[in-house]
């Protein structure tokens, strides 16, 4: 049977936000483009563009 591998939050990859500099962790919705993700939130993304 295919039991999903459980990864603890502390073991997920992190990177600093390009706007605020705070570290943010990998999310499943970013799995396909993790290398392209630069901002921790939509708010930081909008502030960077302004």
- Please state roughly what percent of the residues sit in beta strands, choosing from under 5%, 5-15%, 15-25%, 25-35%, 35-45% or over 45%: 5-15%
Q: Order of strands across the biggest sheet?
A: 1-2
| Unreliable spans | none
Number of strands: 2
Average the pLDDT over all residues and give the rounded result. 89
Could you give a short account of the major beta sheet? 2 strands, antiparallel
Principal-axis shape: elongated
Assign the structural class, choosing from mainly alpha, mainly beta, alpha/beta, alpha+beta, or little secondary structure: alpha+beta
Helix content: 10-25%
Count of separate DSSP helical elements: 1
Distance between the termini: 50 Å
What is the succession of H and E elements?
EEH
Keywords:
50 residues; alpha+beta; two-stranded antiparallel sheet; 16% helix; 12% strand
Task: Give an overview in words.
The protein has 50 residues and is α+β, with helices and mostly antiparallel strands. The chain is built from one helix and two strands. It has a two-stranded antiparallel sheet with strand order 1-2.
């Amino acid at each position: 049977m295919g039991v999903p591998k459980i990864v603890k939050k502390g073991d997920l990859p992190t990177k600093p936000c390009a706007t605020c500099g705070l570290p943010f962790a990998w999310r499943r919705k970013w799995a396909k483009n993790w290398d392209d993700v630069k901002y921790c939130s939509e708010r930081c993304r909008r502030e960077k563009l302004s």
